[in-house]
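2024-03-11 09:14:02 DEBUG pipeline.ingest accepted 1 chain
2024-03-11 09:14:02 DEBUG pipeline.ingest length=231
2024-03-11 09:14:03 DEBUG pipeline.predict start
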Amino acid sequence: MVPKARSNRPGARGATRDTGQRILDSAERLVQQRGFNAFSYADIAGELGVTKASLHYHFPGKGELGEALITRYAERFARALEEIESNGGDAAAKLTEYANLYAGALRGQRMCLCGMLAAEYQTLPEPVRSAVVAFFDHNEDWLESVLDKGRRDNTLAFVGSPRDTARMIIGGLEGAMLVARPYGDLARFQSAATTLVASLATKRERGDWMKSAALNPTRPTRSRPRRQPTT
């Protein structure tokens, strides 16, 4: 978000941008760990050692803060999806990399930002609601494309349309994160996600894939090195 006013002092603009990013970093962690309605500007101000007036300077209200959070998160997630595409591999490998994005968040004792916001959807400001829906729509679009290609090249087999299956994958991964959280057990999520992806592979592909593509949030499923995105 562009500040309401700009200073002509040397370094002021950089400092302002840095403070804005620190605010977003703190707010993102709080949402992923507590939820949107469970934190206040006072929590962020206390954590960062800044005044609440400084927070309002960057983000006049919590709605603006929430919208900026999702925009940044969605852009980061979109870059991760582009990187998965650039890594190549078949559809099952892409789905595994996709699931690893969720595993990486859970490993950091966090939940998917938009998954947490979706749980509070009815109480969110309208701009935040729209941004949450847009995030899931983009993910469904990407998964639909991967699933369609996998069906056409006979590496994936599933009942129903690619769009419906994309929705099942997102719902399955978000739900697996939620259930694994109280157990504090990443392996619980990994097992559920691996089984979900394996259930979509054709019988011909499933055996070899299960041996080589187990979910691991710290390494890629392809040989090409890839930095693990932060979700």
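2024-03-11 09:14:41 DEBUG pipeline.report Confidence is low (pLDDT under 50) at residues 1-13, 218-230.
2024-03-11 09:14:41 DEBUG pipeline.predict end
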